[in-house]
Automatic annotation (TrEMBL):
Residues 167-188 have a biased composition (Basic residues). This is Large ribosomal subunit protein eL15. InterPro entries: Ribosomal_eL15, Ribosomal_eL15_arc, Ribosomal_eL15_CS. GO terms for cellular component: cytosolic large ribosomal subunit. The gene is rpl15e. Belongs to the eukaryotic ribosomal protein eL15 family. One of its GO terms (biological process) is cytoplasmic translation.
Amino acid sequence: MTLSVYHYIENTWNSEEWKKGLLRQRFIEWRREPSIVRLAKPTRLNRARSLGYKAKQGFVIVRVRVRRGGLNKPRPNKGRRPKRMGVYGYGPAKGYKWIAEERAARKYPNLEVLGSYYVGEDGLYKYYEIIMVDPSHPVIKNDPKYKWLQDPSNRNRVFRGLTSASKKARGLRKSKGLKGTVKHKWSRKQKEREEKKRHEASKYYRLQRYDKIPGK
C-alpha cells in the first residue's frame, strides 16, 4: 500500500531530530513574536487537514501562545499553615487549547473557530494553531460542507463550549458505549498482560491465584 504524504509529515514531526533542530529554533523566534499571530499556512498540514482545513478563501490559521503552569494565586497575609494557603496546585478549569481558541476568537470577532491542534511547547509556553473560518465569505457560503457556520445557532460557538476542545474540557467525551465500562477496563488490562506491559505483581493479579481471598 502506498503511504500518503501526510504519513511522512507526521513521522518527520515526531522525530527527535526535528524536535531538537528546526522546531527548537522556531520556539526561540515565536517567543519574540506577539502571542497571537496570523499565519499564511498551517505548520502541521496533516493535523490541519484532518480537522477540516482547506487551502481556499475564507480559511485563516492563527497561532496562539499560552503560558504554561498553574494559576498565579495571591498569597494571603493572614496566619495559616502554608498547606492551607491555597496558592499552589491550582490550575485553570478550562484546557489550554480551549483558552487559546477563545483568545483567537476575541482577536478576530468576525471569524468562527473550526478547530485547533497542538504545535509544541517550551519551558514557559504552549503553542496552538487555530483553524478559523469566515462565515460571511462567498466561498464559504457556497460550500455545502461549511455553510452551516453561517447559521445563527453556530455563532460564537467557542464561547458556548461547542468546539472539540471545549467539549472535552466540559466532560462530554465520556463514552456512551463499551468504553468506560468494567468489561472494557478488564479487556484493556488483559491486552496489557499479553503485551507484557502490565506489572503482574499487582494486588488484584495475585488474588486471582487464590480460591479464597485471604482475610475474607
